[in-house]
Amino acid sequence: MNPQFVALVRHGAYRQITDAPSALQPFPLTEAGRRHAWQSADHLQAFSNQHAIPIATTIHSSPLLRAWQTAEAITQILPGRWQIVEDARLCERAVGSVANLTIDTIEQIVANDPRYDPLPRGWKSDSGFRLPFPGAESLLEAGQRVATYLTDTMQRQGNAPSSLHIVVGHGAAFRHAAHHLGVLSREEVGAVSMYHDQPVFLRLDPGRQWRLAGGKWKPRRTTDTHTD
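Above: the chain's sequence. Below: its structure in token form.
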């Protein structure tokens, strides 16, 4: 197996509900978000040129609108013909039946249900916490889902020449995937985020070990509870 490279592209800024977990919100990019996508495309091309690695013509994307629009905007900048493949395994962490409700509303629902204990402080950004609702998952579980997708996709390359594979998705799921892949420690996951306009590049070596190959994580403020 030849080394394979993955560009983790966080979607651009989008019109999200204020004070609600980003999760599966179905809203489009803002104009700033489109600019983020175009700037990401410039970084992708620069990495390809610097390392003499061609960009694979299939772009992998979360099916959430903000991610698909980011992938589509990237194809407007990069030369060539592209295929965007959407896969639900690249979605952000799901919060189940309380999707698209505000944090205050979710906490009130839990408080009014005698079956549940009060939610712990900082639950939204707690990597291991899962809301007690059908369909919910923890950030670590979402990261495992994404990590499995990345590994399976790259291993299917077999002995194909090295390429740069663009994957468009969500910051929290990507960070926790990087933890499962051995690129970030558990402590580092909580200390970083992702820029909307700067991909993080990973390399899968022939020995099936992942490592950081370029780009940079965004330092995370201790008061920042945003997960996507």
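Residues 4-219 form a domain with the Rossmann fold fold (CATH 3.40.50.1240).
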